[in-house]
Amino acid sequence: MTWPTDLAERRLDEESGLPLPFVCEHDDGSGDLAHLSKKRVLQCALSRVCAACGLSGLPNPLPLLGTEDEVEDNGFRIPPMHDACLAAALAWTRLGRPVLGQTVARPAWRVVRTGGFDLDRPDGTGHPAYPTFRPHSVVSVREVV
Predict the structure, then answer these.
(1) pLDDT digits (tens, 9 = 90+) for 56-110
(2) Taking the model in full, what pTM does it have?
(3) Is 110 helix (H, G, I), strand (E, B) or coil?
(4) Kind of pairing, strands 109-120 and 132-144?
């Protein structure tokens, strides 16, 4: 696997040995592939930075990586990524364990390309539990394995 330089230089997840995505790391440097940092997810949404490497310059249309359920519900947990980061990030989805905010391993993932999204932010009552990206102006949906 060839990782984009900015992603390859990130801290490694201790269990998998793979680069730890920006949205899975907390400000103190802790984190793991299974859990998302709500603060970092919101930072990506509001500052338009990549969920994987944390840098700006996202493509248009924006790629969102999600599970089949997220595509059906039109609600994604993971912010957009650069195309190169997204291609490399598929290694995380193939680990056969919960990753990127999922509570169980997901066998099938999809990439939705969209012209934009609405952001549902947690309202303090626990609804929604996580920031949720709701794409509009969907350009394409592609299954990845």
Answers:
(1) 999 999 999 999 999 999 999 999 999 999 998 899 999 999 999 999 999 899 9
(2) 0.92
(3) strand
(4) antiparallel
Q: What tens digit of pLDDT does each residue of 7-63 get?
A: 999 999 999 999 999 999 999 989 999 999 999 999 999 999 999 999 999 999 999
Burial 8-23 (b: 16+ CB within 10 A, else e): eebeebeeeebbbbbb
Class of residue 114 by CB neighbours under 10 A (exposed 0-12, middle 13-18, buried 19+):
buried
Structure tokens that stand for 145 in this block: 């394995």
Q: Cα separation of 102 and 114, whole Å?
A: 22
Q: 25: which strand partners?
A: 31
Could you list the residue range(s) of the whole structural domain that residue 61 is in?
5-144
- Residue 61, preceding bond cis, omega within 30 degrees? yes
- Size of the chain, expressed as the number of residues it contains: 145
Domain count of the fold of the chain = 1
